[in-house]
Amino acid sequence: MTDLLVSWYAWTKALHIIAVISWMAGMFYLPRLFVYHAEKAEVGSEMDLTFRIMEEKLLRVIMRPAMIATWVFGLLLVLTPGVVDWGQIWPWIKAASVLAMTGMHGWLTVRRREFAEGRNTRTGRTYRIANEVPTVLMFLIVFSVVLRF
After folding, report:
1. What mean pLDDT is predicted for residues 85-107?
2. What does the alpha-carbon distance between residue 110 and residue 125 come to, in Å, rounded to a whole number?
3. Residue 17's pLDDT is what?
4. What is the sign of the dihedral through the CA atoms of 117, 122, 123 and 125?
5. Buried b or exposed e, range 23-32, using 16+ CB within 10 angstroms
6. Which of 2, 54, 97, 104 has its CA 20 to 30 A from that of 136?
7. Residues 6+ apart with CB under 8 A from 16
8. pTM exceeding 0.70
9. Residue ranges of the domains in the chain?
10. With helix as H, strand as E and coil as C, how does 69-135 read?
11. How confident is the model at residue 84 (pLDDT cuts 50, 70, 90)?
């Protein structure tokens, strides 16, 4: 099994990067949709229904599969001999940040459900702040992997 992981390392890494880019696109866009949904759409209006469809499709068709692919290819990289040295700090920072990103994904999923049910109580400001969380986590992940601190 380890020989297979080593021989497929470049492909696994490339697919992991593609999955991460796709997931992050959604992580940046969904909170922004929530800002406009919270500020511009009355519950039950045509605009509200349009936002509900956009948010649901973004989450179900792009973000969820991309998150799953990110995890699958990331775990395959972790299992590939010589890729991760758990004696260093960087993989722990990355792992904690990826868990936090997954938690943020879950938080956004619950917020989407509230919008879908017409129960959103949060303001556009809340979603503007939430929009910054994936950015901060992305910086931690990229710097930890590239700089290996």
Report:
1. 98
2. 17
3. 98
4. negative
5. bbebbebbbe
6. 54
7. 69, 70, 73, 74, 76, 77
8. yes
9. 2-147
10. HHHHHHHHHHHCCCCCCCCCCHHHHHHHHHHHHHHHHHHHHHHHHHHHCCCCCCCHHHHHHHCCHHH
11. very high
